[in-house]
Structures are given as structure tokens and as C-alpha cells.
Write a structure and sequence with these properties.
Oligomer: single chain
Shape: globular
GO molecular function: transferase activity
Helix content: 40-55%
Strand content: under 5%
Number of domains: 1
Order of helices and strands: HH
Keywords: Transferase
Distance between the termini: 37 Å
InterPro entries: Acyl_CoA_acyltransferase
Low-confidence stretches: none
Radius of gyration: 13 Å
Protein name: N-acetyltransferase GCN5
Number of strands: 0
């Protein structure tokens, strides 16, 4: 319900899309966001 509200709010305010960041190891979150209709857009890489 919170996700849907957030999406509706940004669309109401004129945004074309909603983007968010999620750690690659957080498989539960990734699954949730995909179930909400989100698709993978970018992959960021890092080396320490």
C-alpha cells in the first residue's frame, strides 16, 4: 500500500517515473519491486 501511494504521489506531481536504489544482495526487495511492476534499469559497479 505504501509503495502504491508513493508511486501515485510522484505521478500526480508530474514525474514520468519512480526510481529507487536497492542493494544487489537484497533479493527479497528486488522480488518485491519486480512484483510491483518495476524493471531493472541500471547496474552500478564498485571496487574497494
Amino acid at each position: 500500500m505504501l509503495f502504491d501511494y508513493s508511486y501515485d504521489l510522484v505521478k500526480f506531481n508530474g514525474a514520468e517515473s519512480l526510481e529507487l536504489g536497492v542493494w544487489s544482495f537484497n533479493e527479497k526487495a528486488i522480488g518485491f519491486y519486480k512484483a510491483m511492476g518495476m524493471v531493472e534499469k541500471n547496474i552500478r559497479m564498485e571496487k574497494k
